[in-house]
Amino acid sequence: MVEVSTLGYVVINASNLDDWEKFAAGILGLQVGSRGDDVLRLRMDEREYRMIVERGEEDDVTVLGWELETEADLSAYVDLLRRRGVDVVEGDAALRQSRLVEKLFYCVDPSGFRHEFSYGPTHAPISRPFNSPVLLGGFVTGELGVGHILAVARNAAESVRFYAEKLGLRISDYIRDTEKFPGVAVDATFFHTVTGRHHSLATGEIPIQKRTHHLMVQASAIDDVGLALDRVRKAGIPLAFDLGHHPNDRMTSFYVMTPSGFSMEYGWGGIVIDRDSWTVRNYSQLSDWGHHYALPG
Hints:
The longest helix is centred in the last third of the chain and has 14 residues, at 222-235. The strands form 2 sheets. A 10-stranded mixed beta sheet has the order 17-10-11-12-9-13-16-15-14-18, covered by helices on one side. The termini are far apart. By secondary structure, it is of the alpha+beta class. It folds into 2 domains: 6-119, 2,3-Dihydroxybiphenyl 1,2-Dioxygenase, domain 1 (Roll), CATH 3.10.180.10; 142-290, 2,3-Dihydroxybiphenyl 1,2-Dioxygenase, domain 1 (Roll). Helices cover 19% and strands 36% of the residues. The protein is built from 5 helices and 18 strands.
């Protein structure tokens, strides 16, 4: 049965593109692919973009861009979604041009995220290679995609059913932690795609106003995590959580606040799932060590 290959891109709706450009390039190490009055495209590799920042007032992630490998796979997947009762719409020429893909469909999930499904992403010419302004290495992308998102669920059970039973994402594991935050029981479900990044999507009910708790980007060198943390502190940007290590994806990371008010996890060392040997587990801690809450109040 056909499944999505990877989370290829995300779209962020933001009120201040200048702040996002400074943050993404100068702090995180992404490269500006193109910039207009209302759209900022950000590169992480040989693609023309992995993140699109569109001008608006939501200041949140609005779109998750899932990829399939071929037009036949995309058509078969859309047919499958429709048989499962999902309202899928084909994107018009303007949307395809905006996303720089060959063909695209989309639907909306119970929490309000738009999920786009496409094939044929555009690569930059070799005369314009990826060149981070600050990284020693690069980002872990390729077939593993842009990274991951922790999506805030309006109703966790409904969202988990939608992602698993409608979109066909595979459950990686669960974290149920009643001690990390006093008075708040964390109950998160993690999902992976065919290519195996430990999770491309996670969800749970979290008492915040944003639809997005965090995005994650993964550096290929641990030194780049440390250097990024130094840049964050030097710039005076608030940390959400300090350096720590997760038990499920084994990521060493910190969380920094973005210009839009959700956080960005900046990590190294995440594992790739081998479906032939993987066992779904339940963890009782969000972090093995570190990841201490760093925001005031």
